[in-house]
Amino acid sequence: MARRRQIYEGKAKILYEGPEPGTIIQYFKDDATAFNAQKKGTISGKGVLNNRISEHIFTLLGQIGVPTHFIRRLNMREQLIRQVEIVPIEVVVRNVAAGSLSKKLGIEEGTQLPRTLIEYCYKDDALGDPLVSEEHIACFGWATQDEMHDIADMAIRVNDFLCGLFAGIGIRLIDFKLEFGRLYDGDYSRIILADEISPDGCRLWDMATNEKLDKDRFRRDLGGEVEAYQEVARRLGLLPEGLDTTVLDLDTHRKKREKE
Asked: Mean pLDDT over residues 14-36, rounded?
């Protein structure tokens, strides 16, 4: 079997040349990073869980008419996707104050925002993914005005859908990150959803306990990262019920930290 050609390796994924023109194989790693890769580690099995969760969410989004790069899952860690030209903007959708928003503006974490807030960050780890305005995006030609309209419309639509999806399984969607790409058909291009949607790029809190079920457990040294990711997958119906490995026991990790 011919060795696949690697196209790109990021913090959480590796991209390989796909079997057909216009396709790419996306491989999910167990590597975990935070604070623009200043903190690094491994969450065992994270790649497998994120692959399943992202497949599930992208499939559901496709069913409600949101265009995405997802074609199909190939195996435990890989999925086949459409090749796109990534728009160099991270789109952050916020429903509740947390993370950098709380720190920068002094808003207590967990405060419900009066309306959904969309932020744009320029994708550059060396610069710390700085916050930018639509004026910056237009000035430097990172995306056209029409493309930004499509991006904002899709971001709100995805947020509405995900808020309902997660609320139905007892999870509060605090905020999340999206990436978009240009899918070309000759000289014509259209904007579609790309990258992934998983606990790596979402803040997910248990509605009853406010336990964090996302990568903040790694960022803040809370422990229980694997259990949290498994719990999200279990509630979404992606893991069998009743297995010891899928039982959420974050209380143990919290008590352990209190003793330290």
From this structure: 90
Q: From the centroid of its chain, how far is CA 198?
A: 4
Identify the weakest region by mean pLDDT among 67-81, 103-117, 152-166, 228-242: 228-242
Q: Is-contact 198 77, C-beta < 8 A?
A: no
Comparing CA positions, the residue from 201, 193, 83, 187 lying closest to residue 147 is: 193
Q: Taking residues 8-29, what's their average pLDDT?
A: 94
State the average pLDDT for the chain. 91
Of the candidates 174, 45, 33, the residue with the CA atom closest to the CA atom of residue 109? 174
Confidence bin at 245 (pLDDT 50/70/90)? very low
Using CA atoms, how far apart are residues 58 and 200, in angstroms rounded to an integer? 15
pLDDT of residue 41: 80
